[in-house]
Structures are given as structure tokens and as C-alpha cells.
């Protein structure tokens, strides 16, 4: 088991370097080199008035005067020391930006994943038990349609029909807190945040139901046809016991690793959802950093989301090995 | 039709939902192809002073810079007599009416015309980007699966790296720094999306390369590329087709998300996501600007997904026997 863990950790390092290096390469190789970067600060300094000195200074600041490999190595060295540099937009440290926004996105996404799992797994088991009945078909068609609904459209419709306007006024238009947040007590504060999070969480979750519940259904059906289930039935166990003790526990295994595959897409989904609901999280930060070509922030976000993804996959692998002895034994050999 | 693909088609035909999806997909193709004939501010035919003109096909010198709607004589206009970029500042954000079937946007452009031309963007991006990544995925997956060994180890590691990429964010970054154009959208989706196909092809090749027909071909002295392309690849195509169909759906979704965020095609080229994005300023009252493009994206994605689903069932006979 220890070798297995060490092996998985060792894989994280080259993958992390690969992801950040390719992103760095894409930034450095962009046509026009610094001219395209200049477009980002055009608001502050007109292109013409940008003196050569400032030009060189900025180039130096971002390591753009050095060869790509050297520039990347320096970036990597600083990043390992958790020094992400300063944002060129407002001069604050990138770390401060990240510390502010990461918890918001993280809690939004963890909440969404938990909800997806809580709803989809029972739904999948239910569909597997009711296989090929009318109810099974209705569930699968509904989930299929939900899966195909573009999230930005759903977000707009939710805002249009549930947040003010001429229709229902149930939810706030966006943001994370009400204006009167400071005057609330702890419980009210919590309720206020939840009230603001409902629509973003709905937007992030509904698409995941189809994928996960179909997966649960498929693995359940596969397990149900195994010999040991037949044995369990033959020895007279109740159907409930067969399904939940023998079948479900084994179909749970692939669901663990599935969580890991959902991770890389989370940042992308957050960009869309957070920008529509003006949630000040990583997605919003990512979007703004791209709009202003804020390279230190772009690199920091890429590396943090890559790092979190890799950690997630790593934990998935470890959990997989814990619940499935076959993997563990294979790793020992 | 007989053989594998023939029987697959027979099975596909029995699936009424999938067949319906296929019809919608074909319908959208026809609209995209015929867009200039459906929505155009030039008439098909003008009969003026006993002379016959076909302005939609031929550019006449005498009509240069002339508003066709003000010409006297007999005119036969396309069903939607507006072009996608023709604006009318007297009819800004007008609800659907007999004059503008789907209403107009904030510049007084006809929404129906823009929707019809938007079909082109989504189909074009969907097919080209998926074609790019299917090609890359097949080549890389075939190399890994056919040769195995260290080639496979290296390629598998690369696949693992690319799969961990925050793809959507990378696409945004590249578009922001390299310039926003339809071409860049397709290339970037193409070069980041190939991992799924590569893994499928690699797996199929692993299974197929030891099969008798491949071994026999090698024993007869066939070259590697012959065995790969002539013998193994055709047998590995079924899951690739299924994955590619789902891929078109998700590519259309990515393109519309990018356009929605303002990173897609550049104006005045219409894209559904872009129309939806502009609707945000009028969300309180201009329901047609929100509902119509969103519904179009939804129907298109659903259709491709339904076809993909049908293909999956049709191409995998195992579940029937």
C-alpha cells in the first residue's frame, strides 16, 4: 500500500509540471508577445505613451525577457514557495486574491457534488430496480433532457423568472451577501448566504444528475447479474438485503473514481455560473484575469486548479485501493 | 444493406427517438446550407420594366447600393427578407410580429435571420473541431495501442496530463491571448479534446492487435500502417463514432458558452450564444431574445445526444443477445 501511495504521489509532480508548462508556453508563444499583453493595460496607459523603460520593466517583472525555460523555471521555483507574485490589475498579491475567492468556489462546488451524489445514487438504484418500467423511462428521459440544457441559459431563465423582474421575486439577483449582511446575527447570516447560493448551486448540479444516476443504474445492473447475487438470493436473503448489502456496496466502487473525473471541469463551470450570478469566487477571478490579461493570476489559477484536481484524483485512487482489495494486491506486486 | 453497418442502421431505424434526432440534425444542416436562400434582403426574382433579375445569385450593377425593398415592380423575397447584419434603428427590440417573425435585437436586426445564420456557426464549429480531435485521438491512440511498450507509457502519461487540464479555462486563456476567431475556437477545442477518443482507440487496438486477422496479416508480411489502417482501425471505429457524436454536442455547448462569455465568433457574425449573451440587457421584457436562442441550443444538443445514444445501442449488439 505504501508503494502504491508513493507511486501515485510521484505521478502528480510531472503532471503538474506538464499542465503549468503548457499554459506558460501558450502565454509566451502568443503572437505579438508583449503587444498583446499591452492591450490589457491600454486603459491605464495609452499604447503610444508607454515608454520603452516601463515596457522593459514590465517585461522583466513577468520574466518575459528571459528564454521560456528560464522564465518557467523561475515561475515554478517561486510557486513552490507559494509566491504567486502580484496582480498587475490592482497590485495586490495574487495569493490575497486566491485566499479570498478559493473558499467560495470550493464550497460552492463541494456542495454541488454532494447534492449530485445524494440525489443521483438513490435515483440510479431506483431505476435499476424498476428497470424497463414506465417510471424508469420517465426518469431517464427527464434526466437526459436536463443533461442537454445549457447551464448559462438555465441561469438566465432562473434569474428572469425567479429573481425580480415581472415574475416571482424569490431569490436575489446575484452576489453572495445582502447589503444588510453586517446587521444580521450568525444564524441569519448563514441563511442569507444559503439564500444567495441556491440558484448557483441548482445551475451547477442539475446537469450532473443524468451522468451519475445512469452510471449507478448501469453498475447496479451489472452487479445484479453476478453469480454471488444469485447465490445471495438462492440462500433466501430478503431482496432488500441482497440489493443494499451485496449489490450496492460493490457498485459503489466505480462511483468513487468517478468523482475524480468530475474535478477538472469544475473551474470551467464556475467561470460561467459565477459570472452570471456575480459570485466573487475563483471562476469570476479567472474570467476577470483573462479579460485583463493578468498573467500572474492566470498562472496561479491554472496551477491551483490543476493541483486540486490532482489531489482529488490521488485521493480517489487511494480510496479505490482501500475499498477494492484487488487493486491493493496488484499494487503490492 | 447488409454487414455490420447495415444491420446497425436497421437497429438504429427502429429507435424512433434517435431517428427523430437524426431528422432534426439533418434539418439543421439544410438550414445552415441554405441560410442565404432563407434569410436574405435580396429578392430571388425582380421583374422590372419587363426584364427579369435574379439579385440573390447575381450582383447587378444597376442595383448597387439600392434598397431592394424600395424597388418598384414584382419582387419575390425569401421567407425572411432580412440579412443577418441589416439593422433598422426604427425597430429596436421589437417583439415577434408578422414583420419580424422572431422579433429584433438591440440594433434592430431580425432575430430569425440571425438565428438561421447562427446555425452555420454551431454546426461548423461542432464538426470541424470534432474532426480535428478525432483525427488526433485516432493517431495517438492507435500508436499507443498498436505498439504498446514505452510508446504506450509515454502516450498514456501525456493523456493523463491533458485530462487533468482545466480545459475551458485554457481555451479562454488562449483565445484571449491569441485572438478571438472562429478558427481559433475550433483549433483550441480540437487540440484539447482528443483524450477521450485516444483512450477508446488505444483500448480497442489492445484488444484487436492480437486477433487472428491482424496476426495473419502480419504473417503475410503486411506493413504496420497497413495493419493499422486497413485491418484494425475499421474494427475500432464504432465506439469512436459514438464518442464523436456526443463530442459534437458538447463542442456546440462549449462554443455557445464561449460566445456567451464574449470569447467566440466576432460580430457581426451571429452565434446563438452571442445572441443569448446580448439578451441579458433586456432580460426583463425581451423574452424572445432569451428563449429562442437558448431553446435552439438545447434542441440541437439534445438531438446530437439522442443520435449518439441511438448509435451506441445500434453499434453494440451485445446488449441484444
Describe the structure.
The complex is a heterodimer of chains A (333) and B (321). By secondary structure, chain A is mostly helical. Chain A has 14 helices and no strands. Chain A has helices spanning 2-28, 34-40, 52-61, 68-80, 94-129, 134-148, 151-162, 186-224, 227-234, 239-262, 264-276, 282-291, 295-323, 325-332. The radius of gyration of chain A is 25 Å and the shape is globular. Chain B is mostly helical and 321 residues long. Chain B contains twelve helices and three strands, in the order H-H-H-E-E-E-H-H-H-H-H-H-H-H-H. Chain B has helices at residues 3-14, 16-33, 35-38, 111-147, 149-163, 167-178, 182-192, 195-208, 212-219, 224-260, 272-278, 287-315, and strands at 45-48, 51-53, 74-76. Chain B has a three-stranded antiparallel β-sheet, with no helix packed on it. The radius of gyration of chain B is 24 Å and the shape is elongated. Chain B starts with a helix and ends in a 6-residue tail after the last helix. The relative contact order of chain B is 0.14. The mean pLDDT of chain B is 85. Classes of the chains: A mainly alpha (333), B mainly alpha (321). The interface between A and B is large, with 48 and 42 residues.
Largest beta sheet of chain B, briefly? Answer: 3 strands, antiparallel
Given the helix and strand composition of chain A, which structural class is it?
Answer: mainly alpha
What general form of chain A does the structure show? globular
Strand residues, percent of chain B: under 5%
Oligomer: heterodimer
Give the distance, in angstroms, between the N- and C-terminal Cα atoms of chain A.
10 Å
Largest interface: A-B, 48 and 42 residues
Radius of gyration of chain B (Å): 24 Å
Instruction: Give the tally of β-strands of chain A.
Output: 0
Task: Please count the helical segments of chain B.
Answer: 12
What is the C-alpha radius of gyration of chain A, as a whole number of Å? 25 Å
Q: What spatial form of chain B do the alpha-carbon principal axes imply?
A: elongated
Q: Give me the number of helical elements of chain A.
A: 14
**Strand content range of chain A:** under 5%
Overall pLDDT score of chain A: 81
Mean pLDDT across all amino acids of chain B: 85
